[in-house]
Amino acid sequence: MKYKICITCKEKKSIKHFGILSKSSDGHRSECKECRQDETATDWVVVGLENELKKKTFVTFTSRFGQHKREQRSQLHNGHRNSNIKRDAAEDGIEAFKFKVYKTFPSNTHKSVIKKWVADIKNQLKIEGKELYNK
Ligand SMILES: [Zn+2]
User: Fold this and answer.
1) pLDDT tens-place string over residues 63-94
2) What does the pLDDT average to over 86-113?
3) Are 43 and 107 in contact (CB under 8 A)?
4) How far is the CA of 77 from the centre of ligand 1 (A)?
5) CB 3.0-4.6 Å disulfide test: which of 3, 28, 57, 74 passes with 48?
6) Of 89 and 37, which is predicted with more confidence?
7) Residue 40 pLDDT more than 70?
8) C-alpha of residue 17 to centroid of ligand 1, in Å
């Protein structure tokens, strides 16, 4: 089977995960279908960036998950805005950080509903004994 690495999620996936693009050198898109779907979706996604070694999470929400992941990954590489994440990325390596989707909401959901849910998931994580990068 043919494999290809997606430019967005950096995961190695079988070629059937990549859409057809006849003008490209291998006949397929450079971004996998899952990531392209993220790109076009406008649903709200409550997402955590979790340091699996330290059991510490940064919780936030976005309507552009694909873009969000790219920005976060770029910040992990180049120095994260959050000084604690920056320190831990240097200490544990950026491979320690994984994205986690907690919940998605339809695009017409009011922000206050999502913010309430974000507050709830933060409390839930604390109960589970996980630390948070953002209070
Ligand atoms: Zn991908």
Assistant:
1) 888 889 999 999 999 999 999 999 999 999 99
2) 94
3) yes
4) 18
5) 57
6) 89
7) no
8) 9
Q: Compute the distance from residue 112 Cα to the ligand 1 centre, in Å.
A: 30
| CA 90 – CA 78 distance, rounded (Å) | 10
- Parse the chain into domains and list their residue ranges: 3-39, 44-132
CA of 9 to the centre of ligand 1 (A): 4
pLDDT digits (tens, 9 = 90+) for 6-31: 998 899 999 999 999 999 999 999 99
Residue indicated by tokens 């919940």: 103
Strand (E) positions, the chain? 3-5, 12-14, 18-20, 28-32, 44-51, 56-62, 97-105, 131-132
Between the CA of 2 and the centroid of ligand 1 the distance, in Å, is: 16
Instruction: Give, in words, the CATH class of 44-132.
Output: alpha beta
